[in-house]
Amino acid sequence: MEAIGWVDADTFYCNAERVRFPSLRGRPLGVLGNNGACVIARSSEMKRAGITVGDPIWEAKVRCPNGVFLKRDFDWLGDVSGRMLEELRTLSPLAEYFSIDEMGFEALPIGGSYQGTAEAVRGQIRERVGVPTTTGIARTRTLAKLLCDVAKPFGAAAVLTPAEEESLLVTLPVTELCGIGKRRAAVLAGVGIGTCLEFARADRRLIRRLLTVVGEAIWYEVNGEAVLPLKEERPRHKMISRGGSLGRETADPYMIHGWMVRNLERLIEEFRFHRLKAGRISLLLCYRKGKDRHGITRGGRSSVVPPSDRFDSLYAVVSPKTCTPTGLLLHLERGISRSDLDGLITTSSGPAPGDAPMTDATLLWSIWQALLARFAWAFNRPGHRRFVEWVTGLALNVEEHTVTQSVLALDRPADWRAMERFAEYGAWDAGAVTRSLTRLVEQAPGRTWHGYHAPAVDDTKVHRSGKHVWGTCTFHEYTARCPNRAATVRAHNWVVLGALLDEPGRPAWFLPVSGRLYFRKSQLPARSGFVGPKVGFRTKCELAVELIREQARITGGRHLAVFDGGYALKSVIRPLVTPEGDSPRIEFLTRLRHDARLHAPPPTGRREGQRGPMPKWGKKLEPPRRGGRWSGPWHEGHALVYGRRRRVRWKEVVGRWRVAGHGVPIKAVVACVEGYKKRFALVTSAVELTGLQMVELFAARFRQEDGFRDLKQRLGWEQCRAWTRKPIERTSQAQWVTMSLLRLAQFRLEAAGEVGWWFRPPWNRKKDRPSVLDVERLLRRHGPEIRRLLSEWLGEGREDGSRRSCGGVGGVGGVGG
What we know:
Blueprint: E1 4-9, H1 12-20, E2 29-32, E3 39-42, H2 44-48, H3 57-63, E4 68-71, H4 74-91, E5 95-99, E6 102-106, H5 114-128, E7 133-138, H6 141-151, E8 156-158, H7 162-169, H8 182-189, H9 196-201, H10 204-222, E9 239-245, H11 253-274, E10 276-287, E11 296-308, H12 311-318, E12 325-333, E13 336-337, H13 338-347, H14 361-373, H15 381-396, H16 403-409, H17 416-425, H18 430-442, E14 448-449, E15 452-453, E16 455-463, E17 473-476, E18 488-501, E19 509-518, H19 540-555, E20 560-563, H20 570-577, E21 587-591, E22 598-599, E23 635-641, E24 644-657, E25 661-673, E26 680-684, H21 691-700, H22 703-713, H23 725-751, H24 772-781, H25 783-794
Parallel strand pairs: 2-4, 7-8, 16-20, 20-21
Antiparallel strand pairs: 1-6, 1-7, 2-3, 5-6, 9-12, 10-11, 10-12, 10-13, 14-15, 16-18, 17-18, 18-19, 21-26, 22-24, 23-24, 24-25, 25-26
Helix pairs in contact: 4-5, 11-12, 14-23, 14-25, 15-16, 15-23, 17-23, 18-23, 19-20
């Protein structure tokens, strides 16, 4: 590795909030800790006002009255940090996640120089993520990080020669080096070493004697020899801590007990996020005796046998005795990974009562609640409560999936009027719901295929009863093969986009994310109600492009849109691969017509004596129906196609396609798949994919049809009784969210080591993974407990029909039961 780069986000906490709330740009902004008591991060405008880290909020407001103060949101910060890492991986083959706002990467020259690389990395993250960063490139990670600190803010620099390195080190104090703090600096000062250059010029053996092998590694790094490699995976946590101040002196045992329980819950959330269990737990309590302001710290340490992440097991270990602390700190040591834990449990004398692996209602509800919590910012507070209630009711409902049946499934019939008002009048940011769901899906396993995010888009009809339902149009029903089935139906025609998740050796997963309603040009509905201005006409192709671009902007990284040949048109292909303005480029994979016009790449030079402009198109190739005549050999392999591993013979060619334009290289493939008489003809702009990968990924697209079936049969997409615009759109979005969350809950249960909870029917012994129905059955199995926990989360009182909710006004509006 010739050069290592380092990226450090400038005032990350503040600038991440400005990505979410653009109106905060240019205003003094401070980020508060979890308790909201003190400032932990400041924007440059707030720094100029004299606010320092650690200032109490009441003092900061006095000194900066026009400042904006927000509490830290780790979920959002993690999302922004993950998007930065994804962008970095598009520019480098190796990237390391060092911290939430710092990352290292293997630097490759762009435009012939490493300075160009630094500027490209800084510019791409700023453009696609919205966070300003500083980038430094040097021969080692220590020098790159040091250069990054010096070049702040929003700098981009490359230092790769010994002379440049010496000028960088000459004036910087040795404490600027990563790994050398005040104690080590004091040791070095005893031998006359105070600057980074003096440290680099010192004898290596002296540094090793003073600072052990850790200091010796830093010495090598400062002298340009890379001995600390980049790591793609973070090392496993050895200790996790949660705690904080009680805010005032107290001797109230209930207050102390409640604070301990709250921090234990926070600790368990972090444990389950990292998939760890506690092997040993310590409780530290800080007392004050008389006027002693420093206090006395006492604590105890106990082993957890067997290791566990269950609340009841850990609570029994750390339940506090009578004491009068002013602070409470819980920390877990020696986290044991799930894979290590399995062996440990089997070799122990036996698990403690309640620690046997099981899918209980508390674990299931904690997973479900954590997933739904990510949508809180899309609603006001009462609106989020209604949204959680609605989605949970859809998952528990075994009858018609209407609003009234959903509240009955929750045993909360008195909430029906408030729920219907919420569907019609409540505050609901549909775009924010889509962004939240997209970022949740981004955390699912198998999110990328061969380095690409793979959104799949298609349209489907949701049958409705008549003209009185907003947005319905008449369509020819292609499945009407018998005389007693109508050839023309009235329906909503949805263009839906979802994520394809790869599971090696098994069929892919499909998670719906977003959608748009399509209307026939002759049957455009009114914008609201049934009279007034009509909605604008947009083709299905325009809607598909809009959905794909929306996903690409939210997630960043490389995208490969997969769709059927019905969308393989110029109006879809060209906006994706040759975007205008700031729209991202998106590759495509689709079915190719058997008479498609293909060309070889255009010539790169002129023939002798040739005149006129250079040709844009190369020699015309045989159409796909005669793809066997393409130059090149036939290849053979095996791929998972439609649920079975099949033998595939294929031939591929790289050239140009009339639909994509002369400036876009494409790869066309014809494939003979075992069990199918007709050849597959596919085309993609991701020319680095092999023909076998193209066949397997395109076959995975048909999991979208299974997703549509589950939405209609399991979640009642065609049972909606709404007839006005907002309830229709919101009901569909709630059902997409419910289906995706059911799958995400399944993934989290599997990650938590829960097995055996789904049904293996005797007539299908080969079933090897759960379905959406299995996850619904699990929720219904624990239905009484889930309903109780939901009621506790919503509050003690239930709303009757006369109580207002979410800004609703009199009248039910357009939702029917």
